[in-house]
């Protein structure tokens, strides 16, 4: 079930053009962006919960990070609407589901095993800060291993991106053109360690989730 397993290469997935694939849990489907491993895997995925669907209680041995893209995600810690950013560190547990249905962008088994930091924020209630012409930034998380932000890019902005420690972008709103491809909502781009690219923001601007410097260590499948 692996996908985009060579982290030395650029990878791109336009997820809305891909079919949904059923997960082992009824009512929960997914579109895999990258994956190393079998059912227990280091994975980056778009996951869709049907209304009323629910996972059984479980522990995230390797941690879980996600952004709610549509609907409302729920667990015993609260209701998390679109725009919520969540980090459930290794050894945390919950019972996820959604009464109305939701779609999330989720990353599994990508934490420092010693990380115990919970993050639960509603980005709709946070502010962007201008950092360069046409670029606004909202910090979400940062440590010695990675940096996670939201960015808003003004229409027509041309950007040169360097990825000394690797880079991932998920389009939340709007889009951009890069490498001869048009990236729209829920499109995903990964640059390898040492990668570079240039892009031009679409006429409507763009809002993106970005993770940097997390590929300094070679990604590996979980040891289970």
TrEMBL record:
Signal peptide: none annotated. Gene3D superfamilies: Jelly Rolls (2.60.120.10). Residues 9-111, 118-212 form the ChrR-like cupin domain. Transmembrane segments: none annotated. This is Anti-ECFsigma factor, ChrR. It comes from Epibacterium ulvae.
């Amino acid at each position: 079930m692996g996908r985009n397993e060579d982290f030395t290469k650029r990878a791109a997935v336009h997820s809305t053009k891909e079919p949904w694939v059923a997960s082992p849990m009824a009512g929960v489907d997914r579109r895999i962006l990258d994956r190393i491993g079998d059912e227990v895997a280091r994975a980056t995925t778009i996951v869709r919960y049907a209304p009323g669907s629910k996972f059984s209680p479980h522990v995230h041995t390797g941690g879980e990070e996600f952004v709610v893209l549509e609907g409302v995600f729920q667990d015993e810690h609260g209701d998390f609407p679109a725009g919520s950013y969540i980090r459930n560190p290794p050894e945390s547990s919950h019972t996820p589901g959604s009464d109305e249905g939701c779609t999330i962008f989720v990353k599994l088994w990508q934490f420092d095993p010693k990380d115990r930091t919970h993050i639960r924020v509603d980005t709709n209630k946070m502010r962007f800060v201008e950092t360069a012409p046409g670029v606004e930034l909202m910090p979400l998380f940062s440590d010695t291993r990675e940096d996670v932000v939201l960015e808003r890019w003004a229409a027509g902005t041309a950007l040169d991106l360097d990825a000394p420690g690797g880079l991932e972008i998920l389009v939340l709103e709007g889009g951009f053109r890069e490498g001869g491809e048009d990236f729209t909502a829920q499109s995903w781009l990964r640059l390898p360690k040492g990668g570079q690219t240039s892009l031009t923001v679409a006429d409507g601007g763009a809002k993106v989730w970005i993770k940097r410097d997390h590929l300094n260590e070679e990604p590996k499948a979980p040891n289970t």
